[in-house]
Amino acid sequence: MTTSNPEWWKSAIVYQVYPKSFCDSNGDGVGDLNGIRSKLDYLVELGADVIWLNPIFASPQVDNGYDISDYRAIEPTLGTMADFDALLREAHAKGLKIILDLVVNHTSDQHRWFQEACRSRKNPYHDYYIWRDKIPNNWGSSFGGPAWTYVESVGQYYLHCFAPEQCDLNWDNPEVRAAVYDEMRFWLDRGIDGFRMDVITLISKDPALPDGPVIQNKAYGSYYAGCATGPHVHEYLQEMEHEVLSRYDVMTVGEAPHTSADQAQLYVGADRGELDMVFHFDHMHLDYDENGKYAKTRVYLPDLKRVMSVWQEKIAACGGWNSLYWSNHDQARAVSRFGNESPEWREKSAKMLGVCLHLMQGTPYVYEGEEIGMVNAHFSSIDQYRDVEALDTFRDFTGRKGFSEADTLELLALKSRDNARTPMQWTSGHAAGFTTGEPWIQASGNEGEVNVEAAMANPDSVWHFYQRLIALRHNRASVTDGHYELLAPDDEKVYAYLRRTEDETLVVLCNFSDEEVSFELSAEVVWDASGLVISNEPDAAAELSRTVALAPYAAHVYAIR
Ligand code: GLC
Questions:
Q1: Residue 447: inside a domain
Q2: β-sheet bridge partners, residue 195
Q3: The domain containing residue 400 runs over which residues?
Q4: Strands 97-102 and 555-560
Q5: 426, 446, 470 — which closes off a domain?
Q6: What is the pLDDT of residues 81-93, one digit of tens each?
Q7: Same domain? 128 vs 257
Q8: pTM of the predicted model over 0.90
């Protein structure tokens, strides 16, 4: 992969590293930059092209780095600026790119800008944030409580869509935008290769700050109605492109909560001059119930196919590009949620999920541990949790909502963000080989079975399968360029689709169930010859037939010419 192609990210695989949980080099129990550097060869061997690092900047860590107190300083528990420069230099030398998390919807309350803003209403930084004399609406924060907090020194309330320590910036103030662009240039000039932009669809607030609907059995109204895709968001992103991004050869992916595929066309459409990709949440919301994400519901496959296909089609139609993900630092482990984590099916369903996602149009994001089929941690006590959201949910469900502790813990075990944040499982040893010290969050406990050392030693492992899947994207043009076409939308067990180019058609068949099923290929698919491209079964037929028997969690890809 070379940077002479301005759209290099289209044939790339991004590997997401949660720095706190990836690899601890100094035994303090917290992952760090030198730990990441020690694993670069591992990522090269897997085939990753780009590393996305969750926030590494100075932060009081209320929300694990999503509360930044200094955009230009490295969080001391993760290392130093010299460590970062060494990491970037070595990554580049090995052909890896690094993108950083740009968290500019809000800053920490410890950021100098906010500290100044609280001194007086006349302070030049006061207007960097969003203040009101009275609480103007019913908005609740994502992490519980109201979205407005009072500051006595100025006699006003400031807005925080997330924790009170995460204060929303006032993007309507041109000085704020100029200051953010400066911070971006600081990192781009250091040589980074792009940004993942945190909740970027929320930066422009509706000036009316309207009440939001009270949904999902919450105590407060949703702020999304007044924040997501607000009146100036496209103008601000185009300005950012013009002022900053257009001057660098970088990629951008914006986290886009509360954004439909139709709205996304305006963020990523060709010639819009905004973002290269967005992360949508439509597939993540399919297993919600009246209590929001903390539900026992499993995704209904026809719904999943509908949502994924809408994004495949609409983003292609606007000349944009998709991001593809099953999991990240905010989501439960993919195998536990969409596959089958039982010992019998863990590896097979992990490979099936890999095929289903990696063969679609877009750039796949592999979250750390996904390549070995890591599963949820199954914590059984609230003391094991660390995440501000999990702790708030526990309080809210066992308090206001009247759930028992046991029921609440069961829901947290299914969906808590901490499932993704337990230490990366390198070995079966102490703390899964993540640290020699006491890890900041306990290892999942299944590292005896699921770890990198064992996976790399076993040619049939999920790891080796991911390596092949990634190589396929690098080497087969149809995987990047093919036109996506869904087959059998109503089939409740099989996710089948085509990727068509002039040269070949890929047929992707994934059994999402633990039963053997028979799948009929529609007559519209005509072929002279076919060949197996990749499969998670050793004895998959070498050629495709009209009626395919799919064993539990089988995944096959055939090429038709
Ligand atoms: C994004 C991040 C999440 C964080 C939130 C607030 O959703 O992915 O981890 O808590 O923004 O910054």
A1: no
A2: 100, 252
A3: 383-415
A4: unpaired
A5: 470
A6: 999 999 999 999 9
A7: no
A8: yes
